[in-house]
Amino acid sequence: MQHPADGRTDVIVQTINLPKFPAGFLFDKQVLEIMTERIFTVAKRVRQRIESTSKVGDEVTSNKFQDLSYELDKQVWQFRVHMQ
């Protein structure tokens, strides 16, 4: 069964299942820590999707998820470097 993608901002916010971003002033390091954790969480979810799409034989989607996983891992690494 296929489900159409719904990329509207309000739908994504409701379904992403991540903590609400803190309001108010944040120091740079706080933002880097929050964003690193969020990107890492999404990267873990993408790796789960790689496995599940591969199991059902959808190699094209699995490959796209692998590309996304690589980019997310690179972003996590870059955020961590900036925190040092």
Mind explaining what this structure looks like?
It is a single chain. With 84 residues, this protein is mainly α. The protein has one domain (25-83). It is built from 3 helices and no strands. The model has no long low-confidence stretch (mean pLDDT 89).
Give the total of domains. 1
- The low-pLDDT segments are none
Discrete helix count: 3
Elements, N to C (H/E): HHH
How many distinct beta strands? 0
Please tell me what the overall shape is.
Answer: flat
Helix percent band: over 70%
Which class of secondary structure composition applies to the elements? mainly alpha
N-to-C span: 46 Å
Mean pLDDT over all positions:
89
Instruction: Please tell me how large the radius of gyration is.
Output: 15 Å
Largest sheet: none
Strand content: under 5%
